[in-house]
Design a protein that fits this description.
The complex is a heterotrimer of chains A (262), B (302) and C (418).
Chain A: E1 5-14, E2 17-27, E3 32-36, H1 43-51, E4 58-63, E5 71-72, H2 78-84, E6 86-88, H3 101-108, H4 117-122, H5 125-145, H6 160-172, E7 178-182, H7 190-207, E8 210-214, H8 218-224, E9 227-232, E10 235-240, H9 242-246, H10 249-256
Parallel strand pairs in A: 3-8, 3-9, 6-7, 7-8
Antiparallel strand pairs in A: 1-2, 1-4, 4-5, 9-10
Helix pairs in contact in A: 3-5, 3-6, 5-6
Chain B: H1 3-34, H2 41-60, H3 66-93, H4 101-122, E1 128-129, H5 149-171, H6 173-183, H7 185-190, H8 195-221, E2 223-224, H9 228-243, H10 248-269, H11 274-288
Antiparallel strand pairs in B: 1-2
Chain C: H1 10-26, H2 28-32, E1 33-36, E2 41-44, H3 46-72, H4 82-92, H5 96-142, H6 151-168, H7 172-194, H8 199-219, H9 221-224, H10 245-271, H11 274-284, H12 286-291, H13 296-322, H14 332-345, H15 350-366, H16 374-388
Antiparallel strand pairs in C: 1-2
Helix pairs in contact in C: 1-3, 5-10, 5-13, 5-14, 5-15, 6-7, 6-8, 6-13, 7-13, 10-13, 11-13, 14-15, 14-16
Classes of the chains: A alpha/beta (262), B mainly alpha (302), C mainly alpha (418).
Amino acid sequence: MTPILETKNLTMQFGGLTAVDNINFTVNPKEIVALIGPNGAGKTTFFNCVTGVYKPTSGDVLISPTGKGQQKINGLKPNKVTEKGLARTFQNIRLFQNMTVLENVMIGRHSKLKSGILGAVLRTKATVAEEKKVVQDSYDILVEVGLEKFVNELAKNLPYGAQRRLEIARAMATEPALLLLDEPAAGMNPHETKELDEMIIHIRDSKQISILLIEHDMSLVMSISENIFVVDYGKLIAQGSPNEIKNNPEVIKAYLGDDSDA
Amino acid sequence: MDLHYFFELFIGGLTRGSIYALIALGYTMVYGIIKLINFAHGEIYMIGAFTALIIASALGFTGMNPVIIFLIATILAIFFSAAYGATIEKIAYKPLRGSQRLSALISAIGMSMFLQNYVLLAQTSDFLPFPNLIPDFKFLKPVENLISSTSFLILVTTAVVMILLTYLIKFTKTGKAMRATSQDAKMAQLLGINISRIISITFIIGSSTAALGGVLISTHIGQLNFYIGYIAGIKAFVAAVLGGIGSIPGAVLGSFVLGWTESFGTGYISSDYEDVFAFLFLIIILIFRPSGILGRPENKKV
Amino acid sequence: MSDILKYFKPKELKKSLIISLWFMILTFPIMVIKVNTIENTVLWRWGSLIGMGIGSFIAATLWRYLLERKNMQNPLSSKKSLQIRIIEWANANPKIKPAALIAVSLFVLAFPFLAGMYQTSIMTTALMYIVLGLGLNIVVGLGGLLNLGYAAFYAVGAYTYALLNYHFGLSFWVCLPIGAGLATIMGILLAIPVLRLRGDYLAIVTLGFGEVIRIVLENWNGLSFGPSGIANIPRPGFFGMDMKLQTATIYIYFIMIAMVVFTIFVVRRLENSRMGRAWIAMREDEIASESMGIDITKSKITTFALGAFFAGMVGVIFAAKTTFINPASFTLWESLMILCVVVIGGTGSIVGVIVGAFILILLPEYLRAFSQYRMLLFGALLVIMMVFRPGGIVSNIRKKYKFEPIQASTNVSQKGAE
């Protein structure tokens, strides 16, 4: 089975600092994979390398959105990466604050649409039809994540939990094959986390999307992940199922320090 | 190769560079500390020059020793400019400290417009002669074709200012606080540094050096008008960016590079396009190496 | 909401007094002592000192009050702004819109015949600034890119007409698209090198570019005839007819009206289109928008190009209207004026730009006595707006879409709300 995402010896250096150190990583189709590790371990940097925000110093990022053959995407710009089927959310919410909830989702549809300036000004049949469809499709996505009542509200006025869900909805609108979620549960209470848990599984099941998430909330990670990768100081230190990771001494040491420090 | 002409241009470039440096310091320090391009900084330089002119004129009727008049005028110019700088910060920048960078930039532009027209309306649009209160230094007589008394004064003053500033930044508690604030304002605040005070001090120092530059150049050239702030401001800003905005040695380096380029450029190529050098430098630098010669590239945090 | 009366209590009065004293001392040299070193005179204007004292006392109190009010404001308060209330009232009374449209149209059509040549000329200038403002708004308001050298595109349009006419005798109507086209190309050329630049740096480079263009125009006599400019530029022709000045003025007025309508039409359609949304997303968060599939390079280039297009268009008309152009019309001040129109009127809002143009162009005309204070006031206005209302007078309201009854929001607004 061709992995939907694979990194080979992925390395990211900033001057003298190696933030991502030789990481070999796989996500298989329809898997839910978690990337965990202490703060500053390089998880978001890894995301940024995969999604094109950073150009990796060395190593390769290979994707296979259709399952047939792999393509290298390292060095591609983020919008191209998204076009190829990867979408992401951000650790610190990056919504378009002064646009409405609906418009935020509509932006997600941008790369799937074609209308340009001329079409918009002349209101050609194709453009009008496309607009209508985009409005409806975006609304449907909002209904799926339960945000339809906020449809015309400015994103900045949404409560925190709703903002996080909107980011996911926006990423979903790009019709990804792989969804990368950066700390989606940050700042959520247990009830909201449980809802998020169900939403992620629902997304994976109904849309056959693979999910890769960075998370600190261990209950969420343990409950939904099928495979977990652990990084510390940019290096991969463990990989396995939730049970394997829970009992892995390297992982415990990374998070809690070892006894010799006590 | 006319060696004399070359040296003339060399000294000329050095003089220009010194003035640019005095102004550029203010730009770079303020940018380093609050990441704002203080558009109104050029106007502070101009206000310094004007204040000195006003004081000197007023005192001119008292028959005091010209050098004393010059000193009083300069010191008062510095005081007033520093006050203007601190006041501008409180009015136009402090309320915008958390806001979008664009808003602060536009506010700075507005302040620049305001100050320029304020001086224009309160005084005049004419070019006003600036009295020459500096006596000819006797020890310069042998080289008087190459370097005038005022040029000499400019070079010496700038050197002294640089030394004092370096000492301040490196060895005093305030200097440390300034460096800390420019690296991480939130953290500095958490550590007990009163960043409002530090920011005010930064503006005061920057305005003071700019005012000094304004007085010196007006004495050297012999005239001023309300518009000099704009051109000198842009060029000093270019110098700061050239050297690496946020870096004090960078500002000095950039200033001299620009000063010499302009001097030799107008001397050997053409004097019509004098201002173009600065703008072209600006465009090229920002496109190819925005961090400047001595600056470090900023990494965006995603 | 804080009570303004509290500012009359002794403690607050003292603070205002101290501020007032500060300003009296601060501005003493420049305001009170007027020097003239040409004639060697010094004039002491003590009246200014008193005026400054009183003025700054009042201003300080007002400023502190308004600042406190602003800082205490709850952005989610249910109190609706005046603007939203006007819009909702207009939506609730559907007959208002067509009636208002007819009234405005009648006024626009009748204006030149009622108001006389001079007033028409002023109004035409205001209309030109509306188009310039709308053009810059595409770059600044929608795209979030601060272009401080916008006047350069304006100059390209004007000089294209002037020079093509001078050398080849080409007429206004032929030069109009050429001028707009050349300006557009220049917009693309400027956009390419500045693609990677961040906010402030972008602003400065565009400023530099604008200045380089002006300096070149001033010094390259072979091309532009230098500071003396180009004169005797013909006004637009009407099927080859020769027109008296009066008729020509009215003619140009209507050409501008058409241009304003055209520009508003284009901007409105773009605002709520795929490209328009992409620009706004880019303005809001460049990294996020790129991660959502938006080609930032293309977006930046198109905003610059489109903005330049409108400036070029107006530039041609400017040359035809004033029949004489020189580099002095295209300075940094010009770029800043247009920026003021956008920023003060309302960034990102068509109505805002119109309001801004009227305030900044018409008001000074009618307040001729204060014309020398114009730039002073604009500068102050910029600062005040940024501190208290950074979005401008008129806020940009996003389009609200209508959906099936599932919608539970209390604001059932119709499409096309602005």
